[in-house]
Amino acid sequence: MCAQHVAPLAPGERLQNLDKFKQRLEQYHACTCACGCYARDLDRQADRTIAYLRNRAMHNPRHQRLALVLDIDETTLSNYDEMQKAGFAYDPKTWDAWVASEQAPAIAGTLRLFHEAQKLGVSVFFLTGRPDTQRAATEQNLRAQGFDGFAKLLMREPTELKTATIAFKSGQRAQIVGEGYTLAVSVGDQWSDLRGTPQAEYSVKYPNPYYFIP
Asked: Taking Cα atoms as reference points, which of 50, 42, 44 lies closest to residue 77?
């Protein structure tokens, strides 16, 4: 009988199977795996932000106009239902229909943060990569989920649709500073939400293993 041999494995065998990885994402969201618990991780980051904001508002001797800058998708509103239904793939038509439905639920920790900022007299700015054509649906969705009374909703104008995220968002933050505000806190689920100049005094990164925006 001839001996049986197995050829050396190709380097790609080290990569996790896509279906297994999607399953792991679902388990992380459902808090059923050893990899962590999405809701708990979000709450932890929100609590850290609230603690900082309280301390910053308390120690504001020059009476600066403090601003809290919040990203929307996966920071303020959750799109998990749409992502899971789409198999974690991005389809522009499906995504636009989801936004138009105004059904994205609030991320609980961010809602607590938003209300705390209002109590402290901190102005809240929503800064999103969504196009301005989705303004009405976005505002309706935010208000329906309890985010009412914010200072401004900043979105991409038609001329900014191809602008890199870091350049777009840092440019918008610069405009907030130009209006006389101090960037106390900025919260986002992508590093591109937070980087660039100017940055907030305290930047908070929410976890998001579902997609990446450079």
From this structure: 42
Distance CA(72)–CA(110), nearest Å, equals 10
Q: 3-state class of 196 per DSSP? A: coil
Residue 123 in domain: yes
φ, ψ of residue 198 to 5 degrees: the values are -85, 155
| Token pair belonging to 30 | 């459902």
Q: Which residues contact 47 (CB under 8 A, 6 or more apart)?
A: 109
**Helix, strand, coil percentages in the chain from 3-state DSSP, rounded to 5:** 45, 15, 35
Residue at 24 is within a domain:
no
CB 65 within 8 A of CB 122: no
pLDDT tens track for 191-206: 999 999 999 999 999 9
- In the sheet that 65-70 helps form, which strands lie side by side, from edge to edge? 152-156, 123-131, 65-70, 181-188, 202-205
Residue 4 falls inside a structural domain: no
pTM as predicted: 0.94
CATH number of the domain residue 116 falls in: 3.40.50.1000
What are 27-62's pLDDT values in tens digits?
999 999 999 999 999 999 999 999 999 999 999 988
| Residue 21 in domain | no
Alpha carbon distance 99, 164 (integer Å) = 21
Q: Which residues pair with 186 in a beta bridge?
A: 69, 203
